[in-house]
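Regression test case RT-17, inverse folding.

Input:
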């Protein structure tokens, strides 16, 4: 897996960026996704437009094929790695365009925007199926739970 600059330029023009961040501002999750692969593709490719107040519930991808490659395109993000009990074991900060990190399959993780606006590009192998794409731990609040605000503050404390 590697980033294709032609794909980025094809999908990320000023209008798309403005529209996706407008969607993110209006959304409860404070982020907006742009999937660019075809349905049932083996290689999943997407852009994530993330605001600073977005909380993405920690999760893992439960398949040996599902290593997730995350590239930073705009802003600054922190990828947080957890053990199976929810203890933070690593923080990886991406701050320059095209900085990237691969989250290994079965690894609990999340990432947060440390900038007002961030854009990431993600790639992961495996045909998307909502039933087995992600596994969410019981130790982290769900994205619709009011505890998410305090948990997000807790996550940001180690930047």
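Golden output:
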């Amino acid at each position: 897996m590697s980033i294709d600059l032609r794909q980025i330029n094809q999908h990320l023009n000023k209008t798309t960026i403005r529209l996706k961040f407008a969607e993110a501002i209006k959304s409860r999750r404070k982020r907006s996704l742009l999937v660019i692969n075809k349905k049932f593709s083996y290689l999943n490719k997407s852009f994530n437009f993330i605001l600073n107040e977005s909380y993405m519930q920690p999760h893992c991808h439960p398949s040996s094929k599902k290593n997730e490659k995350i590239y930073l395109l705009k802003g600054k993000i922190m990828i947080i790695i957890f053990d199976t009990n929810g203890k933070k074991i690593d923080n990886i900060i991406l701050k320059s365009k095209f900085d990237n990190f691969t989250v290994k399959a079965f690894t609990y993780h999340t990432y947060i925007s440390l900038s007002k606006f961030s854009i990431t590009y993600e790639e992961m192998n495996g045909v998307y199926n909502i039933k087995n794409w992600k596994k969410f731990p019981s130790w982290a609040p769900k994205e619709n739970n009011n505890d998410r605000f305090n948990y997000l503050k807790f996550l940001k404390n180690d930047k």
